[in-house]
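User: Show me a protein chain along with its predicted structure.
Assistant: Here is one chain, sequence first, then structure tokens.
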Amino acid sequence: RRAVALILLLCVSGMRAEPARYSVPEEAERGSFVANIAKDLGLTGEELLARQARVVPEGEKQYLQLNQHTGDLVVREQMDREELCGQSEPCLVRFEVLLESPLQSFRAEVRLTDINDHAPVFLNKEIVLKISESTRPGTRFLLESAHDPDVGNNSLQHYSISSDEYFLVYTRRRSDGRRYAELVLDRALDREQKAEVDFSITAVDGGTPPRSGTALIRVVVLDINDNIPVFTRSLYKVSVMENGSQDTVVVVVSASDLDSGTNGEIVYSIVQNSEENFETFKINPETGQIRLKKPLDYEETKTYEIDVQASDGGGLSTHCKVEVQVKDVNDNAPEVIITSLTSTLSEAAPPNTVVALFNVRDRDSGDNGRTTCELTGEQPFRITLLAADAYALVTSETLDREQVEEYNVTVRARDEGSPTLSVSKTLSVRLLDVNDNAPTFTQAIYTMVVSENEPAGRSLGHLSATDPDAGENARVRYALVPPPTGTLAAASFVSVDAESGTVRSLRPLDYEKVPAFEVTVRAADGGSPPLSAQAVLRVVVRDENDTAPVLLPPPPDSSAAGELVPRWAPSGYLVAKVVAVDADAGQNAWLSYELAKATEPGLFRVGLHSGEVRTARAVTERDAARQRLIVLVRDRGQPPRSATATLAVALVDDFSDAFHQLVHDPASGEQPQVAEEEMLTTYLIASLCCVSSLFLLSVLVLTANTLCKARIRAELSPPSPSCYADGAFASDGVGGTGTLSPAYRYEMCLTSGSGRSEFRFLRPALP
């Protein structure tokens, strides 16, 4: 079935040059069936609906409509054949059936069959004829024609007169098919018997039932006049340009009469055989000069046939015909008739998308009526010829609303006449936005600065991203991109306002912990699906002087250290070096050293930036052996922060003297720090030997004491011991400040006879 339908469709497509023909009576009611288009095209109703079949009229008015579900072509609005086509036959209503996907056009025409809805009408209800009594029987008289706008059998078919003894009527036919009446004298008139003859004439059409119109003929019998006027020609043929102005001379007719006097005076008149002739032409009754009452229009009427009557003063008359051929002039510019227009178009529409359908019509003929069509300017559109004078405006390339939001497409149609006439019509096509552009940050990397310890909620700056789309597709919202797992949660330090892009701090920041951090910011639009872009936000923490200098080593909270200086030390001798660090940055971490206090202020000096403590002069014998120095370390912050270091300096002659001073110094509560590494090593070895010796001696004494007590308990039975508590020996120093660990405890049970000598054995031999 699909193959058969395809073959039929190809056949129909191939015969687009021969339009399909249908017929319908004029003034058919709305909804009247005309034809089944789907059947003629070999398509189903579903295919018509899928391909968006529609009827495109040739003119501006839509008389027919197509049911896309059934394929029936029905009447949309009543059509009056006489109004649409006048006397022209056949009367055709042309249209096109347009299919999309792929784009196809099929031409068709509906013929309006005439119905007998008009009766013949005489322009004058009374016709007066003046006939001489000497007129011979058989003489013919041309009568005014009745007008019937119907055509074919429904038009005027014949004339008849009421019963009369003098006249007969004959129905004649003109070259254009219209019928007219000739009155024939059947019996000689006698004015003395009857001066006036009255009868009626009836014009009848051929409709079913027939319609008719009637007029009264009044014949006035004149006295004898034996010569009738004679035209120089029975037929005048003349051509007139349609652009002739009013009162332009068309032709001059001439007739002569051999009679004299009033019987020889000729008066010219136009026999009103049509209302159109009456409105278009006029004749000078004396000269026979025919002029235009109004300009001619070739597109309305191409030929006129005028009946001219010449009458003498005696009542005799004769007739001639004047045929006026109207010559076409290129006086009509082409017309662009829009039959379908899509005023809004998606920017994602592919090439060859139909934007508009239109026809170009020129009412002129020949070369004056041949037209061409083109677009003005460079635009992404082109014109496709569907059929003769039927065009489609389609897209020629992809569209971009961000470059051009609206197009004013100008269609120009021109004819081939001389001079050439043209007309332009502008179609406005507005593009609808599609989310085809991602937001764009103004910077790839944003750097913002925040002061250390700044309160939360402070604005650090603004991010800005733009989207060239429109509406929701251009609405940009900002958000932080979550960091990868295991990285610094920098997103907890700042927030970004989704609408404005304002960056704010979430908590105070510590430069010493986080000097700077980076987060990724995403800008997403409101399209579907949304498009996004990313930028890097780098936040630099500006250091504040919130950290004091820190001394290394000893720490600031330790007791004074000890330094040794020989008495022979010259000026500039390096005593010690104070080392300090500051966790701040910049000038907040620039440290300076100064001597705040000294036992001998002039003996020592401190390097401003190095922290080196040196002798300011040579050491003399008069200088005190013990020197105490306080070194102040200060940074350059605002306000500045500082720390102090206390140095104990011993002026010694040799190392043994130095050892004696350090051990017996009541102000020194812990092992002093020596300047020389070798001296410190010696002290440590000596101390270790002493402690080890005391430990071994204590172990031997404890072992011997245990054995002794066991032997005594065995000899004394039962003993009455006196036990002394652990606290009784505190005054003797066993559990006091000796070098043994307080974890050692000696439990002794002595008899009343024990001597003091045993206890002395247990006391350690301390210097």
